[in-house]
Each structure stands twice: as C-alpha cells, then as structure tokens.
Amino acid sequence: MEQLIENSKPPYTVLLLSGLSQILLWGGSYFLLSVLSGPIMQETGWSYQQVYGCLSLSLLISGLLLPAIGKMIQQYDQNFILHYTGIVMGIGLIMIGSAQSYLLFVLGWGVIGVGMGMGLYDALFASLGKLYGSKAKKVIVWVTLIASLAPSISWPFTSFLLHELGWRHTCFTFAGILMVGIYPIHKYIFRPTIIKETITQRDSVSFRSRIFYLLLANFTIGAIITTGVVVHLIDILSAKKIEMSVILMIVAFLGPSQSAARTLELMIANRSAVEMAFISTFAMLLGIGLLFFHPGLATIGIIIFGVGNGMRSVLRGTLPLAIFGPDQYPLVIGRLARMPLIAQAAAPFIGGFMIQQFGTTIYLCSLCALLLINLVLIWNIRSYELQLQKS
C-alpha cells in the first residue's frame, strides 16, 4: 500500500529555496573542478585524467545509489535523505581540501558522490513528486529554471574564493556553506504534512515493462549526448577553425539558452511531457546539425542545442511523472537515474576516444544518430501514453 503526500499549491518560498539549494549543491560538487582543477594539478602534480576521473567516480557512485535512495524516499515519511545531503557533501569537501595523498582525494570525491545521489536533481524530483503529487510538474520546472543559474553563480564565486583563499580553503568554505545551509532549507521544504492514502490505476509499477525500458533508453541516450557535447564542445568548435576568443563567446550562450528553455516550458505548459520530449530532442538534433555547416552558424547551433538540453533537464522529472503518475514516483525516478548517470560518467572518455581516432565529424554524426534513435523511442512512448488514456 503506497502513500502520497497531498499538499496545497506550492508556495513561492519552496520554489526559491529548492532552486537555491540546488545552486549550492551543484556548485559544491559537479561544477567545482571547472575552476579548481588547474590549481589542484599544479600543486599536486596529478594528471588531468586523475583529477577529472574523480568526478566520473562521483557520478558513477551516485548512479549506483539512486535506486536505493528513491526507495528510501518512497518508504519514509521524514525526508532525512535530503536533510543530510549538505553534511555528507561537506565531509567530502573537507577530505578533498585536506588531501595530501591521491587516495584521500579519491575517497573525498567518493563521499561527494554519495551526497550527489542524495540531493541533486533526481532525489529532489523524487521528493517533490511525493510531496506535491500531480502538482509537482510546475515545481520541477521552476526549480530547474532557478538551478540553471548554478554555473553562472558558482563559477565566479569559486573563482573569487580561489583568488582570496586558495583551492584548499575554497573547499573548506564550500563545506561550511553546505553543512550549515542545506539542512535548514530542506527541513523547511519537507516539513511534516498530512498523509493521504491514494489508489490509482497506476499504483503498481513494473520495472521490467516495455515503457520503463523505453524511458530508460531515452534518458541514457540523452545523458550521453548532453555530456558528450558539453565536455568536448571546445574541441568540436576548435576543429571548425574557430579562434579561441570566439569559441569562449559562443560557449557563453549555452547557459542562458538552457534557462530560456525552462522559461519556454512555463509559457507552453499546456503541452504534454511527451510532446515536450519531441521538441527537446528535435532541437538538440537541429543544434548539432548546424555545427556541420559554416562556422558562422555555430552560435545559433549552440543556442538551439541549449534550448533542447534545458528542456531535457525538466523532462527528467516531468516525463516519468506523466507516464507513471505520482504514487510510486520516487521509486521510478531512482530506477531511471542509474544508467544515465553511469553513461554520463563514461561519456567523456568515450567521446575523447572517438574524437581522437575518427575526428569531430564522425563524432557529431554518431550523436545525431543517437538523437534519431531517441525520436523513435519517444514515438513509442507516445503510443503507450495514448493506449493508457484509452484504457
């Protein structure tokens, strides 16, 4: 017998605080090495692969843990998973900042991986879905809209701390912010509410069903494409003989275009999640396709790709909610998150190998082929949704 927390319309404080917590958590984990990797390698002598391999390890650990985390969020009324996310990440950051050996550095990122599984998008979406049920779609859109500012805020802030304190004390500062700030934010958002038992036609979710595997494949391919483009974007544009100063200007459009996509999501909220998935995938395909042509189209291509990718981030939460309903949403989110995060961890290495062996043109063709497969998958998901509506 499953339980769904019925709540009133989400207050704006919940939207703002959820977005703020994601900015802090993403800034203290996923986006941290973008600024700190250089000083870390310079001081320690560790290679690029050694440093960034730790981030891949974190993604792998979070992916492996998420099914269990989703199950815990589903089963327990008190959401202690998200409550203690900041403390876990803070411990990992303290280990990293204190690391004189590579082993402690790796262990610190392993702890951060546990925290990422406990508190980033997938765990938050699962918790919001349990809290607000069918109303969670709007909350997820707003939260991702606010959280899309994470790189724009965290990178300058991390750079400032690095300049003033050095990379080790930057880690300690982030640890203090997360350990002190995240607990009260999540305690307020997920405070005790009235539990109401519900029974729907979609109470029982089969994790061996055709629709589940369709969604799993779709999300996994999406993770490969997103990571494969973002991580290797500079290499892709450099192969087009574009100067580095222009490349940096083009790359700067990626973040704002993703934010614009989430605003667009609010403006066309009457569209179904499956329809939005079509639009998102087609936009990503068109954006990558434009990179094949004249370098002058690269900016437009990145903007269109960013719009599609921004919509994809929202769909990670809204599409499973639309297909499976809210009653076992945390379980579904947890199960659907594992393979995409594992793929995300592997994508930089696979992409780097392909670019080195076959060049950027073949690499981009491979990404376009994956997007075409995703369009077919979405078509099949749409057929399932229509059958569900008729039943």
Task: Provide a concise account of the structure shown.
The chain is mainly α. The chain has helices at 12-27, 33-44, 48-75, 80-83, 85-98, 102-119, 121-132, 136-147, 150-165, 167-189, 210-231, 233-238, 244-251, 254-267, 273-290, 298-324, 329-358, 360-390; strands at 3-5, 195-197. It is 80% helix and 2% strand.
Give your account of this protein's structure.
With 391 residues, the protein is mainly alpha-helical. 80% of the residues lie in helices and 2% in strands. It is built from 18 helices and 2 strands. It has helices spanning 12-27, 33-44, 48-75, 80-83, 85-98, 102-119, 121-132, 136-147, 150-165, 167-189, 210-231, 233-238, 244-251, 254-267, 273-290, 298-324, 329-358, 360-390, and strands at 3-5, 195-197. It has a two-stranded antiparallel sheet with strand order 1-2. Helix 1 (12-27) runs antiparallel to helix 10 (167-189) and helix 3 runs parallel beside helix 6 (102-119). It is globular, with a radius of gyration of 20 Å.
Helix content: over 70%
Helix/strand/pairing category? mainly alpha
What is the H/E order?
A: EHHHHHHHHHHEHHHHHHHH
Instruction: Count the DSSP helices.
Output: 18
Q: How many DSSP-defined strands? A: 2
* Rg result: 20 Å
Major sheet: arrangement of strands? 1-2
Average pLDDT rating: 83
Strand content: under 5%
How many strands, which pairing sense, and closed or not: the largest β-sheet? 2 strands, antiparallel
What does the overall shape look like?
Answer: globular
Low-confidence region ranges: 1-7, 194-203
Distance between the termini: 23 Å
